[in-house]
Structures are given as structure tokens and as C-alpha cells.
Write a structure and sequence with these properties.
Layout (H helix, E strand, L loop, with lengths): L2 H4 L3 E5 L3 E7 L2 E9 L3 H14 L5 E8 L5 E5 L9 H10 L5 E8 L6 H19 L2 E5 L1 E9 L3 H10 L3 E6 L3 E9 L3 H9 L5 E4 L1
Antiparallel strand pairs: 1-7, 2-3, 3-6, 4-5, 4-6, 8-10, 8-11, 9-10
Helix pairs in contact: 3-4
């Protein structure tokens, strides 16, 4: 995994799905890129594509998940070993991207492409789909739990919005509890302001 992500306050990913097509000697390769949050996301997307393309001979894929770079998987789905999954993952890594899945659906055209031809086709179509699907930097979020009295709801939520935090979970009773994802580069400033509010408790999750 590229070191740039590990020490950074941002990570690269895609926000919307996209697709691209590449043809070589009758064979058709269609790449689909998806933003994914976990392995279940991946399973759903792959199952949907297999349903959509039941006559395709291969559904090869690669994904990378998480910010440590250790969660990834590649599949050649019956193609010669190393000709599909690895070239696809190589393109994801060339963009230093994570939380992303690329599935390449192949329709066989009757002519064998050989190992170099296959590697080129899977690499090419994966590169093409990442050109049409914008790779964007997103802030790395650190999770915190904030507890406060109901009367302080407006003050707390104003800060949550001001610092572009993501509300992950919210429980509103007499005493409120909110789980938020705080952009890594803004956490010190936000914590200072939250702790400045009387009776507000903040803890890292």
C-alpha cells in the first residue's frame, strides 16, 4: 500500500460507481468500479454483476479496504494465474486509492489472447474506468463519542457541522449521546471547543 496514505490526513477513494469497456480480438472486457465500505458491500456488488452478466466467462476483481492497506483481495476467476486480479489491483494502487472495488466482466471472443494480452487487457480497462470515475481525497475520520445535556444540542451540533464531522450514531433523550467521525486534521481544534462547553463529555471510541 502506498506510504502516502498511511501518514496522511486524507485518503483517496471514489464517490460514485463508473464503468469502461475495452475490446481485443473479439473479447470484450467491461470494468465496473464501486466505492465500498466493507466486505459485505463487495459481495453484494459482485453478486449483482454476476446476475447482470450471466453469460460472461469471467468476473475477475480486486478490492482494497481500510486505511492500513492490509485488507485486499484479488481473483482471476479462472483466467491464468496473475493475469487479471493483480493487474486490476495494480491500477487501484497506482491511484493510491482504498475502499474501492473493480470488477472486470469478460466476454470471450473466440481468440486466445495469451498471458501478456490478458494482463494488458485487464490493466488497460481498469486504468480506463479510473479515468472516468473521479478519484477524490477524503479526510481520515477519527471516531469520538460526545455526551451532553439535551439543552446543549444546538451548540454541539453547530460545532459538529462547522468542523465537517460525520454523525455516525445519535441517541437523543434527556441526556444525549452522539458518535461522530472527526476529520483527523481538525480534531484538536474541535476537542478544545467541545471541552470548553460546560458538562460536555468527549471520549475517543
Amino acid at each position: 500500500m502506498p506510504e502516502a496514505i498511511k501518514g496522511s490526513e486524507y485518503y483517496n477513494t471514489i464517490e460514485a460507481p463508473g464503468s469502461a469497456e475495452f475490446k481485443d480480438r473479439g473479447s470484450k472486457f467491461i470494468a465496473y468500479a464501486y466505492p465500498i465500505g466493507d466486505v459485505n458491500d463487495f459481495k453484494e456488488k459482485l453478486a449483482a454483476l454476476k446476475k447482470e452478466h450471466p453469460k460472461a466467462v469471467h468476473h475477475c476483481f480486486a478490492y482494497r479496504l481500510g486505511l492500513d492497506g492490509n485488507t485486499f483481495r484479488v481473483s482471476d476467476d479462472g483466467e491464468p494465474s496473475g493475469t487479471a486480479g493483480r493487474p486490476i489491483l495494480g491500477q487501484i494502487d497506482s491511484k493510491q486509492a482504498t475502499n474501492i472495488l473493480i470488477v472486470v466482466v469478460r466476454y470471450f471472443g473466440g481468440t486466445l489472447l495469451g498471458v501478456p494480452g490478458l494482463i494488458n487487457a485487464y490493466k488497460m480497462v481498469s486504468s480506463m474506468v479510473l479515468q472516468v470515475t473521479a478519484v477524490v481525497p477524503k479526510p481520515i475520520l477519527i471516531s469520538y463519542r460526545v455526551q451532553f445535556d439535551y439543552t446543549q444540542m444546538n451548540e454541539v451540533m453547530k460545532l459538529v457541522k462547522q468542523f465537517e464531522c460525520m454523525v455516525l450514531k445519535q441517541e437523543t433523550q434527556l441526556f444525549c449521546s452522539v458518535e461522530i467521525g472527526v476529520p483527523k486534521n481538525r480534531q484538536e481544534e474541535l476537542l478544545y471547543k467541545l471541552r470548553d462547553l460546560r458538562g460536555v463529555e468527549v471520549g475517543k471510541i
